[in-house]
Design a protein that fits this description.
Strand content: 15-25%
Bound molecules: 3,4-dihydroxybenzoic acid, fe (iii) ion
Largest sheet: 8 strands, mixed
Strand order of the largest sheet: 6-3-8-2-9-1-11-10
Number of helices: 9
Distance between the termini: 17 Å
Oligomer: single chain
Order of helices and strands: EHHEEEEHEEHEHEHHHHEE
Radius of gyration: 17 Å
Length: 291
């Protein structure tokens, strides 16, 4: 019986806001949406069987909680509670997110002492970047649910305003998070989620760009060659996967937290899914179990 926390799995998923709207409006069975939600049915069963004690959820805010006034590169949520953000149409009718103040404080201490200069967030709202992945993995919540089934520690990454962090730095941050989790002296089961992507471009002449081959090759390399993948320059993401395809660097943080990057065996692929379209974008999803 372990006395310390451990990382059991990592989950990767796109966070397209229209997915949240489809769920909130009860439209998931419509022909347009049914194939997408079918791809997450195994994930919801998996989650019911592998429910962690806490999730470190790597995501990006889309100028909702943050603005261009201040732009933290890596920001860790240390609050006990986060309300859904109003993104222009009123907040989503989903429960507030419960944080994990104790583990978050430990992560802040450990990761900053490993020389990552995190910003700390004691109060913020959370936008679709965080709530849509929760909806996809946990499904619709009762209207009166006091919170989501699992406490969440948000880790917000700037992928909105250049310069954004490198893939290499993201992978290293994931490794630091693993060390931090493993030094927390409570026997918690922790998952790390990486969200955003896959290929999408929301504006300009290339709006609607989808690159299936590149997206699927990204996932192949994420599984089998994360170190090599982490060397990919930003320009490749943007050229191949569109301007917002750069959100994919966040997947490398979750991947860095897997045991093989600390010298252990390769993770097991529990589920993999890819679908086009959702709104104007491709949707990618992967679950890795730590060996
Ligand atoms: C859209 C917005 C996002 O933040 C994203 O990651 C994908 C799609 C959208 O507005 O369609
Ligand atoms: Fe996004």
């Amino acid at each position: 019986m372990s006395t310390h926390a451990r990382i059991s799995a990592s989950v990767y998923t796109s966070h397209v806001p229209a997915i949240g709207v489809a769920m909130d409006q009860g439209r998931t069975a419509e022909p347009y949406w049914a194939p997408l939600f079918a791809g997450y049915a195994p994930s919801r069963r998996w989650m019911a069987e592998h429910r962690p004690d806490a999730i470190v959820l790597v995501y990006n805010d889309h100028a909702n909680a943050f603005s261009l006034d201040m732009i933290p590169t890596f920001a860790l949520g240390t609050a006990d509670r986060y309300e859904p953000a109003d993104e222009g149409w009123g907040p989503r009718a989903v429960p507030p997110v419960t944080g994990h103040g104790e583990l978050a404080a430990h992560l802040a201490q450990s990761v900053i002492q490993q020389d990552f200069d995190l910003t700390l967030i004691n109060r913020m709202t959370v936008d679709h970047g965080l709530t849509v992945p929760l909806s996809l993995l946990f499904g619709e919540q009762p209207v009166d649910a006091p919170t989501w089934p699992v406490p969440v520690i948000p880790l917000a990454v700037n992928v909105v305003q250049y310069p954004v962090p490198s893939g290499r730095r993201c992978l290293q941050l994931g490794q630091a998070i693993r060390r931090a989790v493993e030094s927390f002296d409570q026997p918690l089961n922790v998952q790390v989620w990486g969200t955003g992507g896959m290929s999408h471009q929301l504006q300009g002449p290339r709006a609607g760009l989808i690159n299936r081959e590149w997206d699927n090759a990204f996932v192949d390399r994420l599984i089998a060659d994360p170190r090599g993948l982490s060397e990919l320059p930003h320009l490749d993401y943007v050229r191949e996967a569109g301007s917002e395809g750069i959100e994919l660097v966040m997947w490398l943080i979750a991947r860095g937290a897997m045991g093989d990057l600390a010298g252990g065996p390769a993770p097991r692929v529990a589920h993999r899914f890819y679908h086009v379209p959702a709104s104007n974008t491709a949707v990618g999803h992967l679950i890795l179990e730590d060996a």
